[in-house]
Write a structure and sequence with these properties.
Number of helices: 21
Strand order of the largest sheet: 11-12-10-13-14-9-15
Length: 746
């Protein structure tokens, strides 16, 4: 008997091992096994096939040991892994590494998952009360403690008490407990317990939907009768989440599980509260900030007879072992955070969610106020269903959006701050009304640039081809590509003059400026730097909800689906920087970020105002944002995409070649592009140098493939594999990093 297995290594294909005779009755597909690989290493592998076909001309090693007594990966998961590997041109071993929690794939025979245990105290069941009292004699403290333990266990109808709980007894002392244990009156036991909360009770039923929500709910159900995937295009604060709750309730009644995907960990806290209020302990939370042992325990619970009915999480929750998946919700489906960048597999969670639902014959609901061009196109062409929700919940008005021409204000010398006079006035007025403000600047740090006024020297990362960002709070220069940290020079290293100055502004400088303008106000910042600690982002969101913070400054983290009751003013600072990126999605992202950020204002009965500060107010994007006109924006973008051969009309594959020697990187990329042009012709663009040519000491060259959707994916994969094989024959690929990014974001 032989087993084909997946190894957690970036290698193509499966590996075949012999199954020892004594293991044959117990092994199965989806089981973990320990196998030797190489001269002395052992890895945890996943069995994908059992057969009796001995491979020819290969020395077959035996499986070392069987870890499981049941499958830890089911058939639908394996199908999903194979699809991700095929579509995203990634080794199956990389998919396996991304899917399982680290403690479930130990190396070199070390088992890293350890069940949680707690100490309990119980009375010896064979000991009679009268005998115990005689034995204790004059040990009054021990007698008193034993009596209190007896009363507690009788009242609770329990046979043991936690050691931590025991320490709170009025008669407790360490010496009395020690004496009772030594006399065998009490027994100290360790019991395996769960790390997961299991006693959260629901506190409300789903709220009644209003007329517009109920119409959307019925339309979604009607759509699901004909199509597997539906796009819910609902304006900000239209009550999409409550519609999701009603759908989850409906699928639960049918005995089906729901996966609720979010783009950011920061959003899980606020949404978890809302869902737990309705579903209690039936809800599980799964993301990377949960420690590894908890993630492994959630995985095991999902395999148990009593799994979570609802999972809320980010990308990685796609890989959990569902059994009765009926509904997948992808909230804020347009978000770029759904695309995994590094390491491989570089999958898009939204598109992968659609495939996961397909394998389970489940339904997928994509929700957004600003859908991605691809999803809206799929809805317009009939691939997806489309349901629209144009009214805000409870009749709240859409915020008034105004464009401030900062170039003109500076020319007239009226712009004396990072904030325009109108924005300052509106914030001041909202604070007097006990309302709040959000200021959005999509650049972290204090200043994006330090420059010498004499010789124009700027500090650059020694590992990456980028300038360093100044962070005033830590007084450090930081590379935002590799996170290398540098000290701030006092004089220019080039001309040795004390002539260094900061250029531009980030969230740190904006926070400082706002604190200066409103000195009696609590100002906080929410960006990647301020939310590094565990639960730090949830704490900032909670404090803002409770109005402990009056003004919140932040990056794009603030634009993602957060719900605040008292925000009257939103300011978008340096809006042009959102649009001036050299990629085809720049205007789409800018429109989405501005619309989503604006949507944080006036979400309840308080009318909101949004100020967008721009030096180019005539840009057509601003008219689409101020008019909340997604349809016109979509048509404009669609025409450009079709003209220049971009999605949704063409599929993109970016091929990246990296080497620590710039010439070798260029030579390999040139040869690969030449080989590909023999089959794909004008569909091959490049190789080119990216905007940032070097990252972490590696020089980068890129090839871009623009492929019509009619082309066979199998044929494209075959062309790439053959070209890569030829490349290895004709070129020295030592230390060359070569990988594919399918459906890149830019």
């Amino acid at each position: 008997m032989y087993a084909d297995v997946i190894l957690p290594l970036p290698l193509p294909g499966l590996f075949t091992y012999a199954v020892p005779t004594e293991m044959q009755p117990s092994i199965g597909v989806g089981y973990r096994v320990t196998v030797p690989f190489g001269s002395r290493k052992h890895y945890t592998a996943i069995v994908t096939r059992i057969h009796r076909e001995r491979p020819e001309n290969i020395k077959i090693k035996e499986i070392h040991s069987l870890i499981d007594s049941h499958a830890v990966v089911n058939d639908q998961q394996l199908r999903l892994w194979e699809w991700i590997s095929f579509y995203y041109l990634s080794p199956l071993g990389d998919v396996y590494k991304a899917a399982l929690p680290p403690s479930m794939k130990p190396r070199d025979l070390q088992q890293t998952y350890t069940p949680k245990t707690e100490n309990y105290i119980q009375i010896d069941p064979e000991m009679e009360t009268a005998y115990a009292d005689r034995q204790l004699g004059r040990a009054k403290k021990q007698q008193a403690l034993l009596a209190e333990i007896r009363d507690y266990l009788t009242t609770k109808n329990a046979d043991r008490i936690g050691k931590k709980e025991l320490s709170g007894f009025s008669t407790y002392s360490a010496s009395a407990l020690k004496g009772l244990l030594q006399k065998k009156m009490l027994i100290d036991v360790r019991i395996e317990t769960s790390r997961l909360e299991s006693d959260i009770a629901p506190i409300r039923a789903p709220y009644t939907l209003n007329e517009h929500q109920n119409t959307a709910f019925l339309d979604i159900n009607d759509c699901f009768r004909h199509k597997q995937t539906c796009l819910l295009h609902g304006v900000t604060s239209s009550g999409k989440t409550e519609i999701y709750i009603h759908l989850i309730t409906q699928f639960l009644a049918e005995g089906k599980q729901t996966l609720y995907l979010l783009p950011e960990i920061a959003l899980t806290g606020q949404l978890t509260e809302r869902l737990q209020a309705v579903f209690g302990s039936r809800l599980g939370i799964y993301h990377s900030r949960i420690n590894d042992q908890e993630r492994a325990e959630i995985w095991q619970k999902m395999l148990s007879p009593h799994p979570y009915d609802i999972i809320i999480g980010v990308r990685s929750s796609l890989f959990l072992p569902f059994h009765q998946l009926g509904l997948v919700i992808v909230d804020e489906e347009h978000e770029s955070s759904y695309k995994q960048q590094d390491p491989a597999p570089r999958y898009h969670a939204r598109d992968t969610a659609v495939m996961l639902a397909h394998f389970f014959e489940a339904k997928t609901l994509l929700g957004s106020a600003t859908p991605s061009i691809e999803s809206y196109y799929n809805a317009q062409t009939g691939k997806y269903g489309l349901v629209t929700l144009t009214e805000r919940f409870n009749g709240s008005m859409m915020p008034e959006i105004r464009i401030e021409n900062t170039r003109e204000l500076r020319r007239r010398k009226k712009m004396k701050s990072l904030l325009s006079p109108l924005l300052i006035e509106l914030i001041d007025q909202s604070l007097k009304e006990n309302k709040q403000a959000i200021l959005f600047r999509n650049r972290r740090g204090y200043a994006p640039l330090i420059v010498c006024k004499q010789c124009e020297w700027t500090p650059k990362c020694t590992r990456c081809d980028v300038t360093l960002t100044y962070h005033k709070k830590t007084n450090r220069l930081i590379c935002h590509y590799c996170n290398s940290i540098y000290s701030v020079p006092k004089i220019c290293p080039s001309c040795h003059q004390e002539s260094l100055e900061t250029i531009g502004q980030g969230t740190e400088q904006l926070e400082e400026e706002v604190s200066r303008l409103f000195p009696d106000t609590v100002v906080a910042r929410m960006d990647q730097d301020s939310t590094r600690g565990k639960d730090r982002s949830e704490q900032i969101i909670h404090d803002f909800q409770q109005q402990k913070i009056q003004i919140l400054v932040g990056t794009q983290m603030l634009s993602k689906g957060l719900d605040f009751d008292h925000v009257k003013v939103v300011g978008i600072i340096s809006a042009d920087s959102l649009l001036n990126h050299p990629d085809f999605r720049a205007h789409e992202r800018g429109f989405q970020l501005m619309t989503q950020a604006a949507g944080r204002a006036g979400r309840k009965q308080t009318p909101g105002t949004v100020i967008i500060q721009s030096t180019d107010p005539g840009n057509p994007i601003y008219s689409f944002v101020t008019g909340n006109n997604y349809a016109a924006f979509f048509q404009t973008q669609l025409a450009e995409r079709k003209l220049f051969h971009y999605p949704p009309f063409y599929r993109l594959i970016r091929i990246i070649c990296k080497h620590k020697d710039a010439e070798k990187a260029g030579n390999v990329a040139f040869l690969l592009a030449k080989l590909l042009r023999k089959s794909l012709h004008e569909r091959v663009l490049g190789p080119n140098k990216p905007v940032v040519e070097r990252v972490q000491l590696y020089y980068i060259r890129e090839i871009l493939l623009k492929l019509e959707y009619g082309l066979s994916s199998h044929q494209i994969r075959d062309i790439l594999n053959k070209a890569e094989a030829r490349l290895r024959d004709e070129s020295d690929l030592k230390q060359v990093v070569l990988y594919y990014d399918v459906d890149p974001l830019s």
